[in-house]
Amino acid sequence: MSEADEALAALPIDPTFPPSAYQRVSTLLRAGVIGFFILATIGMVSGLVRNPSATVGSLVSSNPSAEYGSVGTYLDHLFGLGGNAIILLGIFLMIAVTVGRVVYAAIDFYRGRERILAALSVTVVLLLVVGLFLVGPSIR
């Protein structure tokens, strides 16, 4: 065991951060990151198979949401295994993970009687949702 590992092991566990909250957030983060990498890989492979002249660089440098003008168009491409649609699903997953972390924080703050921090967390979730679903779609 290195000196850095021993120093970290000697630190006390923060009693204000409940182990259950840590477990929920860490599980959510792991699932989100693994899910994103799986979806991004499937999307890139699908894009390369469907368009053999494409390169990984061209797939990564393109805006995966630019070709979708409606939810219906997106779903058609997703169920047709369109590479950009699958990559975009991975991006949506990462956004959902972020929103989920803030929701978990709000719940834990509320349980810990930190009403102001819980209210701030709920405000962050509302701002994220408004930005994603109301402001974001109007920006082209």
Radius of gyration: 20 Å
Q: Note the main sheet.
A: none
Total strands: 0
Return the string of H and E elements: HHHHHH
| Low-confidence residue ranges | none
Overall residue-averaged pLDDT value: 76
| SSE class | mainly alpha
The fraction of residues in strands falls at under 5%
Helix content: over 70%
Number of domains: 1
For the termini, the CA-CA separation is 53 Å
Number of helical regions: 6
**Overall spatial form:** flat
Describe this structure in words.
The protein has 140 residues and is mainly α. It has one domain. The protein contains 6 helices and no strands. It has helices at 3-10, 19-50, 56-61, 71-79, 83-111, 115-135. Helix 5 (83-111) runs antiparallel to helix 6 (115-135). The longest helix is centred in the first third of the chain and has 32 residues, at 19-50. The mean pLDDT is 76.
Give a quick precis of the structure.
This protein has 140 residues and is mainly alpha-helical. The chain is 75% helix and 0% strand. It has one domain.
What topology emerges from the helices and strands here?
Blueprint: H1 3-10, H2 19-50, H3 56-61, H4 71-79, H5 83-111, H6 115-135
Helix pairs in contact: 2-5, 4-5, 5-6
